[in-house]
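Every protein is a chain of amino acids, and every chain bends into a shape of its own. The protein below has been through that process, and both of its lines are reproduced in full.
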Amino acid sequence: MQALVIDQLTKQFERFTAVDHISLEMQRGEIFGLLGPNGAGKTTTIRILLGLLLPTSGRATVLGLDAVKDAEKIRQRSGYVSQKFALYPDLTAAENFDFYAHVYGVRGARLTERRRALLEQVGLAGAEKQRVAALAGGSRQRLALACALAHEPEFLFLDEPTAGVDALSRRALWNLAYDLAERGTSILVTTHYMDEAENCNRIAFLYQGKIVAEGAPFEIKHAQGRAQVVEVACEPLDLALNALRDAQWFDEVALYGSNLHLLSPDAAARIEMVKQLLAAKQIHVQRVEQIEPSLEDAFIARLRSADRSRK
């Protein structure tokens, strides 16, 4: 049985369409990433799947349960970590865990063992008596994950779980996600970090409520018809950026670390033109070459394509 099926799901708020006829499927034990900028519809989708919002049209099932008719059953079999901390700052780590465990009916010896095991697993062993207000952001998010796992859910929703947390906490959260998926837990994660998207088995790009690309990260980067990418290493970078944008030869001219990435279907054919333009502007060019697209490049190319199709 599939872990998640979404069929033409739509959510409208008055004149604004937050989720626009999206469809996707997710297998058991899979880590599936929903990517997109703020306002793309990622959180709205999760809230519909948890029964916290009613869809305008379409349908979805989680673990074979209808997201509208069986919302309470879905929540009992799922865990949810929101992008905003949902912990009680005046309670200790252990008190927060116990509160959420009680909500899911976890009590007695099982609660004690789950608390010990999960706080150790998320790196908070020894912090049981610390008030949440005194914990760092990354520690609070790891505690929130432990709370969401108190009842051993079959499905885990992670909504921007690493936003604003330190690199070590990000890595700890993903290591735990891998471990859970290997044990059969299905995980739907939203993120705008492209490096995190590479950790997913499959991903979908969500933009203005629509899915503009779906597949394994490798498949999306190497899809037929993808934009070509030319990387430029030069100095000064800001002058080159403005000159190339003013030329309007490319669908996108963007900073990428200490380099520029130029995207368009025929970007490679314009390499000599780029060199000549930058030389005329007295910009020192170290390197101009076509490269394999990154996931971020593929994402930007799909967004630009979606924008053109709407015009």
